[in-house]
């Protein structure tokens, strides 16, 4: 992408509206813009990160045997009356259509998925089943704040699991539990699981996942052994569950089983939540299956959410420095940033055009800063945006047909040929 | 994907609710399900087609220099009051939030993009600019019908172009015009352009694009020469505009310049629309740029839409037979359908598992029909769904380690090795 053909409105000063670092940096880097409280446009750079985060989630969910679909944002209120949730209070945004029917902008989709299930699935033979979507939702928060961290219109991955028995559901639950570590790890995040309350959605078994970040919203306590266990290649669910972790309000030093030296006190940001709620929706909505004895019974269900847009905030909270964002490569808006330090110089322009065309042909993400801004401003922009590597082109480099490659994280600089750059960053086309 | 892990609710009889073939076939093939009038879930197969259609649009839009972003579904009504549209009548779905502020579920996004533009772009130097999104929209149609063809919640590609002069905008307009032929052609569609009214959105110059299909919603008339011109490798905009085309209500045989033998009478489905509306939004909303003389002037704008979810209906209208859908390969939910004709037979299961794993590793789309239904039902399902090629595995084929490959469109059958199948269908990993 060329900067000249995009919308990347950089802000030099810290915006007054932003009180936390991720909100501040995503505004400054031109990734998001607010239209009304808690409602944002994803500008080109923000959208690219959002899509990369969503694609990591898709990859791991599909590998776990889950299947993607997409439910509508607007739901008939009748389904909510049937399930007994009734309308979910003041956080639900309601609209009345031209035929005077009330609809809800879905804050979650338990009712809709249960309705789909009961219309089509009648037997234990079709189970287990794990259906998920990545869809925009709306919660009319009383005080939306912190940018994407607590928005009103937000993107969520919500998976719904269906089982014939508690044993079958436990397998699904544990698979989601393990999958979540793989998902967050692929985005460069360290997460700790916590046993959680089941809240408004209700149910029996529930865990939430918190990203560890210095600037996190709440204090957390956990056994240091969890750091190794949750980042192991093979996730050992029992072993992890046996270890202590507690959020601030539940942590009681008097009964904490972990010795002081092994207890980590940190701050966390909630990014995921898994639930088992049995027949809470399937019983009132009559989502029945014939079990192995030929008897009709309500299907056993769970729901497993990840705050997709919220994750962008969490990643920035965990990965930034005084110059801006330091995206993990897997979710960076672009892998490479091409900086022409003398735009308008014929040899620099020609060499940049050649590099840009070659990288695009090789499917390597590159943002070409092709405006007439001065070099210093271009470097500052690339550092603020957090592109992992800059390719710097000066008249000397153009004459030598060489590229100065600078790493955002370490600052290390290396001179490379175009062939070597392509070889090094070729990821998606081999 | 395994059929056993998905939700593909096949319907054998024609559903009473569906009066046109695309609606009927998409329901029968388990691609979509309605929740309330004109509001659908995209089931796993339907979502895969939707994503492929959207990705073709993205590829061609990006190649034309357009840049993707994503605006929110819910818009503050104040922007609509500022532009003078005020709320757009009864088709607009409105919601009132907890602070008694009225929001609109966006049926289009002219106001939001104009607001983004005026906040960030101040000079002709940042032009031309083409920003687009692929986003869900809502129109509270008085009579939603025909499945995805006339839904209330629908997916649309909307691009907005910004220019400093009429000349610069004409270049953008013509580029979108040519790009649309490339987009539709890549989905196996023949489209004819028509000079159009500007309607509620208002403006000066406008064309709509209609897919030619026997079952189309409206009668159309055009010069036969347009068929070759619109499918040429290089789109010649003037040459196309010089030829006659007219929708039913505008066609007057008395003044039609085309001789009878060259005049095609067909039926069409509207799938795209491009507009130039100058300063209709930028003047009242004060989206001003400094021009080359240093004078502030309202930026000149255009909007360019494609009905993304509607296209699924249009493609099925153009590509089906008595057995079901015949998807063009580029938008098929899966390229290949693997049919195990004796599920439970150890050698068939093992050979299918080997084929399935190998194809997945090679990134070749494959739907594995792994349930215990009888072979006849599996073939009928694959034909109804419209998977372009079936890979058929019998005990004999398993013993020989061979694959019977059957083409959906022609019915031609060929025996191939797994290596040969991989070689033939390897598309995305080379």
Percent of residues in helices of chain A comes to 25-40%
Number of strands of chain A: 23
CATH class of the largest domain in chain A: Alpha Beta
Overall pLDDT metric of chain A = 94
User: Which residues of chain A form runs of ≥5 with pLDDT under 50?
Assistant: none
Give Rg of chain A in angstroms.
24 Å
Instruction: Report how far the terminal alpha carbons of chain A are from each other.
Output: 21 Å
> What is the CATH superfamily label of the largest domain in chain A?
Bira Bifunctional Protein, Domain 2
Query: How many separate structural domains of chain A?
Result: 2
Structural class of chain A: alpha+beta
Largest sheet of chain A: 9 strands, mixed
- The oligomeric state of the chains shown is homodimer
Shape of chain A: globular
**Largest interface pair:** A-B, 56 and 56 residues
CATH topology of the largest domain in chain A: BirA Bifunctional Protein, domain 2
Describe the 3D structure.
The structure is a homodimer of 430-residue chains. With 430 residues, chain A is α+β, with helices and mostly antiparallel strands. Chain A folds into two domains: 3-321, BirA Bifunctional Protein, domain 2 (2-Layer Sandwich); 334-425, Rossmann fold (3-Layer(aba) Sandwich). In chain A, 30% of the residues lie in helices and 28% in strands. Chain A has twelve helices and 23 strands. In chain A, the strands form six sheets. In chain A, strands 3, 7, 8, 9, 10, 11, 12, 13 and 16 form a nine-stranded mixed β-sheet that branches. Chain A has a five-stranded mixed β-sheet with strand order 20-19-21-22-23, sandwiched between helices. In chain A, helix 1 packs across helix 8. Chains A and B meet through strand 1, strand 2, helix 2, strand 3 and strand 4 of A and strand 1, strand 2, helix 2, strand 3 and strand 4 of B.
């Amino acid at each position: 992408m060329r900067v000249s053909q995009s919308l990347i409105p950089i802000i030099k000063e810290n915006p007054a509206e932003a009180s936390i670092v991720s909100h501040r940096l995503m505004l400054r880097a031109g990734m998001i813009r607010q239209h009304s409280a808690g409602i944002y446009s994803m500008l080109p750079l923000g959208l690219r990160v959002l899509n990369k985060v969503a694609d990591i989630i898709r990859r791991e969910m599909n590998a776990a045997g889950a299947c993607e679909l997409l439910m509508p944002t607007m739901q008939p209120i009748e389904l909510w009356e049937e399930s007994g949730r009734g309308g979910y209070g003041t956080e639900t945004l309601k609209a009345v259509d031209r035929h005077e029917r009330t609809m809800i902008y879905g804050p979650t989709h338990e009712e809709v998925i249960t309705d789909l299930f009961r219309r089509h699935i009648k037997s234990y033979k079709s189970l287990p089943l794990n259906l998920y979507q990545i869809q925009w939702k709306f919660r009319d928060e009383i005080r939306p704040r912190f940018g994407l961290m607590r928005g009103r219109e937000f993107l969520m991955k919500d998976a719904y699991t269906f089982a014939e028995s508690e044993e079958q559901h436990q397998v699904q639950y544990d698979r989601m539990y393990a999958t979540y570590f793989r998902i967050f790890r692929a985005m460069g995040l360290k997460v700790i699981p916590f046993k959680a309350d089941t809240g408004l959605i209700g149910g029996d078994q529930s865990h939430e996942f918190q990203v560890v970040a210095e600037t996190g919203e709440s204090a957390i306590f956990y056994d240091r052994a969890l750091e190794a266990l949750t980042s192991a290649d093979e996730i050992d669910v029992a072993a992890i569950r046996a270890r202590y972790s507690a959020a601030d309000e539940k942590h009681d030093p008097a009964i904490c089983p972990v010795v002081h030296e092994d207890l980590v006190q940190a701050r966390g940001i909630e990014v995921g939540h898994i639930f088992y709620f049995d027949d809470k929706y399937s019983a009132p909505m009559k989502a029945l299956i014939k079990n192995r004895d030929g008897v009709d019974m309500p299907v056993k269900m769970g729901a497993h959410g990840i705050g997709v847009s919220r994750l962008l905030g969490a990643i920035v909270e965990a990965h930034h420095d005084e110059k801006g964002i330091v995206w993990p490569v897997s979710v960076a808006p672009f892998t490479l940033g091409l900086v022409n330090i003398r735009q308008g110089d014929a040899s620099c322009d020609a060499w940049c055009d050649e590099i840009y065309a070659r990288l695009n042909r090789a499917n390597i993400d590159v943002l070409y800063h092709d405006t007439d801004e001065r070099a210093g401003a271009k470097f500052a922009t690339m550092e603020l945006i957090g592109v992992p590597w800059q390719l710097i082109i000066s008249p000397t480099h153009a004459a030598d047909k060489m590229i100065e490659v600078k790493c955002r994280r370490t600052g290390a600089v290396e001179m490379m040929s175009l062939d070597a750059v392509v070889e090094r960053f070729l990821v998606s086309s081999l």
